[in-house]
Write a structure and sequence with these properties.
Layout: E1 3-8, H1 12-27, E2 31-32, E3 41-46, H2 51-69, E4 75-80, H3 88-93, E5 99-101, H4 107-117, H5 121-131, E6 143-147, E7 149-150, H6 161-165, E8 169-170, H7 173-185, E9 190-194, H8 211-219, E10 226-230, H9 239-247, E11 254-256, H10 264-270, H11 276-289, E12 294-301, H12 308-321, E13 325-330, H13 338-342, H14 349-372, E14 378-387, E15 390-394, E16 400-404, E17 412-420, E18 425-434
Parallel strand pairs: 1-2, 1-3, 3-4, 4-5, 6-9, 9-10, 11-12, 12-13, 16-18
Antiparallel strand pairs: 7-8, 14-15, 14-17, 15-16, 17-18
Helix pairs in contact: 4-5, 7-8, 9-11, 12-14
Bound molecules: iron/sulfur cluster.
Length: 438
């Protein structure tokens, strides 16, 4: 029996790509294995957003190279954001790799996999002739990611994504809704619509649908109880989208809007395409329509030339806004980007580290305050896992909740919160809203 193992680094989009590749490989007769030493085909799905993620991929490639020296015959594939038009260097360093594939370019991998196990031409032919587009992966639980738009047109100066994932490319509405129906039939209760800039969805399609169009389509699909969407781009977040989130009951009041910096001069150097005032206007509009909405953001500290004053502006924004979650990272220059070519990485490492810690401290403080407000409140939780009588799930606002009860995975339950930490809630079941029909 031919086997495969996929190791995924990076964002939700990569996780979705890995599941799609897995579905294609399974159609060719391959079976997934947990242990990569037992796989005939090992795939590393890489991330280039930060040096640390690339270093982890190099580490794994080193191990695979050594195994090959010791006689392993497993085929090795590298896919994802580390693979681009200018990655000849990488190919030279790791001749042990059998196939290189850019994000979503599955054809070469499938052809190699089919050849390696002598799969029937018919199945491979159907996958390569467009069957992959409609090959949906079986869900692993009650939640699933659904990519709706690939690529990014924004070209922020520090970011490698547009260079590796290409320009914005939306999937047709029908294809997305077919996939959501398939997922619902296989037990999925919550879908997260994915895009690097998800509100850009549809601008490149003839009928000009948008995210609100997708929300309406999913509203009519039985079984799906919740919809989320990631990642927002402040400038693309129109009033229509904010209103659609407020008006569609299935859509969770959860916004992931990266601000990246609280300083206009820094935002300009990042070429983010909006001012701080515009960002804050979006936040105000969300809070007017949905006072309890969760607002999550991303911040990069130590970008080229970031002064103490610019950093202080970011701190002030965080104190004003009280974000639910802050994903913070220190700037790391990515070869090929505008910033790498034209801007000195001039903020010392210890300054970056100190700024990172300040933001992490602010995050912990605001997460504690926000979670404490939920003490003795009852929240809606979708049960995502269950072990030894303990269930775990998430609220509509994305908070992790642990509680003592044996509900079925996929049930929607009401939980009264009796303990909080900055990162999770604990409680007891107060009732079941809907049972999973799996
Ligand atoms: S919006 Fe900017 S940061 Fe986000 S993926 Fe596009 S280029 Fe990168």
């Amino acid at each position: 029996m031919a086997t495969f193992h996929i190791w995924t680094l990076g964002c939700q989009m990569n996780q979705a790509d890995s599941l799609k590749l897995a579905a294609g490989l399974e159609r060719l007769g391959y079976h997934p294995v947990e242990d990569d030493t037992a796989a005939d085909l090992v795939v590393i799905n890489t991330c280039s957003v930060r040096q640390h993620a690339e270093d982890r991929a190099y580490g794994r490639l080193g191990i695979l190279k050594q195994r090959r020296v010791e006689g392993s015959t497993a085929k090795i594939v590298v896919m994802g954001c580390m693979v681009g038009p200018k990655t000849d260097d990488l190919r030279r360093r790791f001749p042990v790799v059998d196939e290189w594939a850019r994000p979503q370019q599955f054809d070469g991998i499938l052809a190699m996999a089919a050849e390696a196990r002598d799969a029937s031409d018919g199945e491979l032919g159907s996958l390569l002739a467009g069957g992959m587009t409609r090959t949906y992966s079986l869900p692993k639980g009650p939640t699933a990611y659904v990519p709706v738009i690939h690529g990014c047109d924004k070209f922020c100066t520090y970011c490698i994504v547009p260079l590796r994932r290409g320009r914005e490319d939306s999937r047709p509405v029908d294809d997305i809704l077919d996939e959501v129906r398939f997922l619902a039939e296989h037990g999925v209760r919550e879908v997260t619509l994915l895009g690097q800039t998800v509100e850009a969805y549809g601008h490149d399609l003839a009928e000009r649908p948008d995210l609100a169009t997708l929300f309406e389509g999913i509203d009519a699909i039985d079984g799906v109880k919740r919809v989320r969407f990631l990642t927002s781009y402040p400038k693309d977040m129109t009033g229509r989208i904010i209103d659609a989130v407020a008006d569609q009951p299935k859509v969770c009041e959860y916004f992931n809007i990266p601000v990246q910096s609280g300083s206009d001069s820094m935002l300009e150097r990042m070429r983010r395409g909006y001012t701080l005032a515009e960002f804050e206007e979006r936040v105000a509009r969300i809070r007017t329509r949905m006072p309890d909405a969760a607002i999550v953001t991303d911040v990069i500290v130590g970008c080229p030339g970031e002064t103490d004053e610019e950093f202080a502006d970011t701190v002030a924004l965080i104190e004003r806004t009280q974000f639910d979650t802050i994903h913070v990272a220190a700037y790391s220059p990515r070869p090929g980007t505008f910033a790498h070519r034209n801007m000195a990485d001039d903020v010392p490492r210890e300054v970056k580290k100190a700024r990172l810690q300040v933001i992490e401290g602010l995050h912990a403080a605001s997460a504690t305050r926000i979670n404490q407000r939920l003490l003795n409140q009852t929240v809606e939780v979708l049960v995502e896992s269950e072990q030894d009588g303990r269930s775990t799930g998430r609220t509509r606002r994305g908070q992790l909740v642990h509680f003592d009860a044996t509900n079925r995975i996929g049930d929607l339950v009401r939980v009264t919160v009796d303990q909080v930490t900055p990162w999770s809630l604990q409680g007891r079941v107060a009732g079941t809203l809907s049972f999973a029909v799996l």
